[in-house]
């Protein structure tokens, strides 16, 4: 089930350093990021075998999750807070602010047969 994950952040007068690898609840097999989206939507699918953690490193966006139980929206606007998306959770990323950068950690390498576009 989709839920927020708080990442460990170390802060001092020099700035902040956020650590992700120990907070991600799976072995990371794929890393990618989405940016310069404009008014487009991204995603619009579910993954049958891959879990993901999404982090909006800069700016903000909204993630919509649809399951047989219903639809939930998750705003992402903190670089130390990620969203865990489980397998079989249809998701779309939208309403990107100018300059938004969305980082995605995935539990499996890219495989087009893993994607299902129907809700």
From TrEMBL:
Residues 3-118 form the Sugar 3,4-ketoisomerase QdtA cupin domain. It comes from the Bacteria. Pfam families: FdtA (PF05523). This is Sugar 3,4-ketoisomerase QdtA cupin domain-containing protein. It comes from Candidatus Wirthbacteria bacterium CG2_30_54_11.
């Amino acid at each position: 089930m989709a839920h927020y994950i708080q990442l460990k952040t170390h802060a001092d007068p020099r700035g902040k350093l956020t650590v992700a690898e120990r907070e991600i609840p799976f072995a990371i097999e794929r890393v990618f990021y989405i940016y310069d989206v404009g008014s487009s939507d991204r995603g619009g699918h579910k993954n049958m075998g891959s879990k993901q953690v999404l982090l909006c490193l800069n700016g903000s966006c909204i993630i919509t999750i649809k399951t047989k139980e219903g639809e939930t929206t998750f705003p992402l606007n903190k670089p130390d807070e990620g969203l865990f998306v489980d397998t079989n959770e249809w998701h779309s990323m939208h309403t990107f602010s100018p300059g938004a950068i969305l980082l995605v950690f995935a539990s499996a390498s890219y495989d087009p047969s893993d994607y299902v576009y129907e809700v």
